């Protein structure tokens, strides 16, 4: 199921968000639109409420929700680079493979929502179930546990690292055993689905490990300080690629020689000559 959702964030842990509840293929095109809700991320669930005054600390949210809550366990939030109709849009892929789109008013708030949703998923996602054993060769995505993890951050970090190594090994084996180009369409489709799933799992666990490492190294429990540290680490790893111009006075840099163009005179003997074709005359005709 693919669901488009959009957020508009107001900069705190319980911000105003804009939520588009529309399922492509099921709702008419004219019925799709963006709606404003007050959204609260509590634990590993996103709640869509009536307003800011309805989300008191420790208060039950039953009866205050205006839309179905969304669980973020085993999910991954990333910038929606494919969506160009609105700015500052990020997507949320849930454990059951549904896709939500959220819009934030600024790029900073979008990054904050992405980081905090992924941190909640990395913190509360329980280890996956063991793979089922059977004779069915058709690829089916495994069912992930819904219940929250009871492990510490260190144990969660080790668990996600093991899952990352397993996904990377499975992806490498899949790339080594490519199907035949002239194979059946079903086999090619199975290979494509497996590759798409393993690439997503590898990216998801890489994100989990990165966020938990930053969380473990953060000296404070405040999420704002954790986000600042995460931004500094991301800024330190992303060095700008400066294009250096080669100088004429630098002996260590070789200049790109411009292609030389010159007029070359060809010898007369080298010129291609064409012999004029003279049709044969009929000798009988005078």
UniProtKB/TrEMBL annotation:
GO terms for cellular component: plasma membrane. GO terms for molecular function: guanyl-nucleotide exchange factor activity; phospholipid binding. Residues 1-122 form the PH domain. Pfam families: PH_9. Residues 273-286 have a biased composition (Basic residues). Keywords: Cell membrane, Guanine-nucleotide releasing factor, Membrane. The keyword Transmembrane does not apply. The keyword Membrane applies. PROSITE patterns: PH_DOMAIN. SMART domains: PH. It is found in: Cell membrane. Residues 234-286 are annotated as: Disordered. This is cDNA FLJ55963, highly similar to Homo sapiens pleckstrin and Sec7 domain containing 4 (PSD4), mRNA.
């Amino acid at each position: 199921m693919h669901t488009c959702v959009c957020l508009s964030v107001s900069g705190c842990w319980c911000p105003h968000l804009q939520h588009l509840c529309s399922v492509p293929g099921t709702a008419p095109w004219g019925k799709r639109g963006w709606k404003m809700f007050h959204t609260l991320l509590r634990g590993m669930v996103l709640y869509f409420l009536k307003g800011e005054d309805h989300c008191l600390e420790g208060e039950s949210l039953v009866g205050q929700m205006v839309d179905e809550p969304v669980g973020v366990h085993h999910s991954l939030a990333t910038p929606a680079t494919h969506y160009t109709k609105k700015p500052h849009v990020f997507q949320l892929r849930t454990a059951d493979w549904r896709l939500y789109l959220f819009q934030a008013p600024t790029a900073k708030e979008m990054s904050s929502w992405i980081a905090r949703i992924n941190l909640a998923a990395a913190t509360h996602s329980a280890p996956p179930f063991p793979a089922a054993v059977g004779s069915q060769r058709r690829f089916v995505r495994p069912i992930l546990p819904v219940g929250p993890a009871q492990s510490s951050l260190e144990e969660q970090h080790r668990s996600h690292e093991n899952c990352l190594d397993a996904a990377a090994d499975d992806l490498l084996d899949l790339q080594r055993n490519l199907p035949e180009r002239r194979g059946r369409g079903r086999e090619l489709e199975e290979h494509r689905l497996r590759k798409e799933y393993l690439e997503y799992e590898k990216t998801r666990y890489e994100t989990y490990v990165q966020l938990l490492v930053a969380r473990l190294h953060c000296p404070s429990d405040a999420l704002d300080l954790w986000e600042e540290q995460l931004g500094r680490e991301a800024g330190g790893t992303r060095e700008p690629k400066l294009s250096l111009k080669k100088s004429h006075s630098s002996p260590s840099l070789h200049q790109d020689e411009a292609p030389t163009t010159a007029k070359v005179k060809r010898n007369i003997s080298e010129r291609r000559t064409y012999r004029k074709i003279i049709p044969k005359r009929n000798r009988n005709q005078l």
